């Protein structure tokens, strides 16, 4: 089986790659989004006719907005639903939002009928999930799960504890997940399978060792 890492290790590796190796954070995000976009296109089970992208305030949301922009600029009907307080947004999420706005990616709100979409992309939380999910985040996750629409998660299905594979309040039940650099340890446990679906491991230039090892 491919190597897995803890959520803490994934955060440390991100920081090491940015600060010691010297690859800028936005470069990593663009590499991630291009890989995730490629996974969406390559996944025969997904119909990208009408895509809803769920966006949180952190860099998982930044990835999601980057993917939304790639979909939009390649002709796919794409809408974004932003959850969370504007003051909590990360710098890179804000930057991706500006770019999406330049391309006039549509915004929708929590009262949206999720069932009208053909694919939902989950970018609410990744390695930054810190507590049980509640409020609007939980509503969005539950609506996505109840919609019957196939969900593709970014990095870690939102609400799933990447270390233990446990559900933190509620969690996205993805049919597929693009995990960045390495799968997180809890994602490959049998109890996590209904949440991760099929896992794509995307090489974005973040390595545990000197060279990428499958
Ligand atoms: N430059 C980088 O470091 C890279 C980061 N990447 C992406 O960034 C993600 C990590 O980004 P972040 O560290 O910003 O973390 P997240 O985007 O996972 O989430 C962090 C945000 O959610 C809030 N939060 C945590 N738990 C919550 C809860 N239960 N309810 C409400 N709010 C909650 C935090 O306060 C914070 O604002 C990765 O999973 C990956 O998708 C990738 O773009 C690759 C490169
Ligand atoms: K996610």
From TrEMBL:
Entries under PROSITE patterns matching the protein: YJEF_N (PS51385)
Reaction equations catalysed: (6R)-NADHX = (6S)-NADHX; (6R)-NADPHX = (6S)-NADPHX
Keywords recorded for this protein, A-Z: Isomerase, Kinase, Metal-binding, NAD, NADP, Nucleotide-binding, Potassium, Transferase
Cofactor binding notes: Binds 1 potassium ion per subunit.
Domain YjeF N-terminal: 10-212
InterPro entries in alphabetical order: YjeF_N_dom (IPR004443), YjeF_N_dom_sf (IPR036652)
Entry's Gene Ontology molecular function annotations: kinase activity; metal ion binding; NAD(P)HX epimerase activity; nucleotide binding
Enzyme class of the recorded protein, top EC level: isomerase
Cofactor: K(+)
List of residues binding (6S)-NADPHX: 59-63, 126-132, 155
Keyword Repeat set for record: no
Transmembrane annotation, as ranges: none
Pfam family membership, one: YjeF_N
EC annotation from Swiss-Prot or TrEMBL: 5.1.99.6
Residues reported to bind K(+): 60, 122, 158
Function, as annotated: Catalyzes the epimerization of the S- and R-forms of NAD(P)HX, a damaged form of NAD(P)H that is a result of enzymatic or heat-dependent hydration. This is a prerequisite for the S-specific NAD(P)H-hydrate dehydratase to allow the repair of both epimers of NAD(P)HX.
Family the UniProt entry places it in: Belongs to the NnrE/AIBP family.
Stored NCBIfam families: yjeF_nterm (TIGR00197)
Protein name: NAD(P)H-hydrate epimerase
Natural source organism: Ligilactobacillus salitolerans
